[in-house]
Amino acid sequence: MIDIVGLDYRYGSQILFQEASLRVEDGWKVGLIGPNGSGKTTLFRLITAQEHAEVGDIALPNGAQLGYFDQQVGEMGGCDAVEQAIRCAGRVAELRGVLTDLEHQMAELGDADALDRSMARYAARQNEFQSLGGYDLEPRAREILGGLGFTPERMAGDTAELSGGWKMRVALAGILLQQPDILLLDEPTNHLDLESIVWLEEFIRTYRGTVIMTCHDHEFMNRVVDRIVEIDEGRLRSFPGDYDFYLAQRALEDEQRQAAFVRQQGHIEREMKWINSFRAKARSASQARSRLSRLEKLEKLDPPRSRRQRLVFRIPPTPRSGNDIFVGESLGKAYGENVVFLDLDFHLRRQERWAVLGINGAGKTTLLKMVLGELEADDGSLKRGASLRTGYFAQHSAELLNPRATTYETMTAEFPGESVGSLRKCLACFGFDEIDMDKPTSYLSGGEKARLVLARMLYNPPNFLILDEPTNHLDVESKQALVDALKSYDGTMLFVSHDRHFLDAVATHVLEIDGGTADAFYGGYHAYVERTGHAGPGAPA
């Protein structure tokens, strides 16, 4: 059990927690939510004693082991992914090293008494090592890495050669390998594909310990958590149930608060009208003063707090394209001996919205670049449509922003002839306030950078959007705003996404790439799941 009592914490002049209290029972799966900057990561750091509260206590069970995944990846290299994951596994990895050192010492000791003492230390450490599952470390590391998308070949390679996203998966594997009593996960689905997310869902859902996590993936939260804890103006509020139940409860609370406030304001207005009408009349003056006194003693309800204003992305109408956007027949593509496509057919028509699904390395991004015209096929024939104006959101689009340019300068550089008011209005629709306009893009968060790229792309929208993981780094509100905007978009879409809520809301068709060929599914993502019985290639439903 985690017991947080009367917590106060400031970051500079900002009050993050004030008299915050929370009890988390053993085995709970908790989703921690709150606006950006509300203190979610700070709470994790307080629980792990990396930060200390000014007032209040955080009590953990005696001897409880904590595991914390915070997306901070240290230096990796000089070993393969399996060994690196084991090194990240905390106490059990530490004991593994201690036992190895003692084995070397005992092999060199000649004195019987010294050998006995070393053997006694070895036996004590060995018992703890065994209780933590130390002798199963390597097979469990391989199983976890496999669930997170590693092939045997990728596991065997030097971790120094991995990209940042793959290193993040190794670090996550190391935390999961620890099997701690309390597992703290800060955005664990970032950098994971759909198949890995589905595997992680099952891992957490069946995990015997306590889990507290932040996550921007709406569907992931619904499938995993049994409690939502909201950071609400410095307090911690607990709601039983999943994320959808929490939203319904908060909406009901907001309605009730608004209704109570309106009723009280109506009562006050009626009373003051009566008092003002009769206070000057001798026969009623005493009664008027009495009613005024009661009114002054009335505990006034505060106006309902305005929740974060919902973002509204408005996409203007687009110029009409031809009916055929892309026609590919018997497409083949290979990189050396690695065959990506073999005899792939794909026909994309105007106003269709295709989601491309496939396991890592299946060729999803390759297909997007082929449709875009950045890659040509090795075999087969392809034809791109007429009157196309294409917008491409790549996974690393945000990294291409000029770090010295401000948010507003990024827009004016792309649209130099547009009015100041028009560009600022567009940025406001994408969640940027006046302060943000003058921020260099290097100071923006990952989600803010993604929103800026989308704002620049959709200000004068293309009639064909190609999106590669557009929801990465977007919070729940921004994702929903993007979904709402794309529902009314009148162009054509081809996209890759691991977010099932986004897939279900946006896709009209699904193209599943597997083994170099493609199967088309009509009727959207929900129909695809019903027909195949799984959430994605290689993933259970």
Description:
The protein is of the alpha/beta class and 541 residues long. The chain is 42% helix and 22% strand. It has 19 helices and 18 strands. The strands form 4 sheets. A 6-stranded mixed sheet has the order 5-6-7-3-8-9, sandwiched between helices. Helix 8 links the parallel strand 6 and strand 7. Helix 2 packs across helix 7, helix 10 packs antiparallel against helix 11 and helix 13 packs across helix 14. The longest helix has 36 residues. The mean pLDDT is 88.
What is shown here, in short?
This protein has 541 residues and is an alpha/beta fold.
Walk me through the topology:
Blueprint: E1 2-11, E2 14-24, E3 29-33, H1 40-47, E4 55-59, E5 66-69, H2 81-87, H3 91-108, H4 112-131, H5 137-147, H6 152-156, H7 164-178, E6 182-186, H8 194-205, E7 210-214, H9 218-224, E8 227-232, E9 235-240, H10 243-278, H11 282-297, E10 324-335, E11 338-349, E12 353-357, H12 364-372, E13 379-384, E14 390-393, H13 407-414, H14 420-429, H15 434-437, H16 446-458, E15 464-468, H17 476-487, E16 492-496, H18 500-506, E17 509-514, E18 517-522, H19 524-532
Parallel strand pairs: 3-7, 3-8, 5-6, 6-7, 12-16, 12-17, 14-15, 15-16
Antiparallel strand pairs: 1-2, 1-4, 8-9, 10-11, 10-13, 17-18
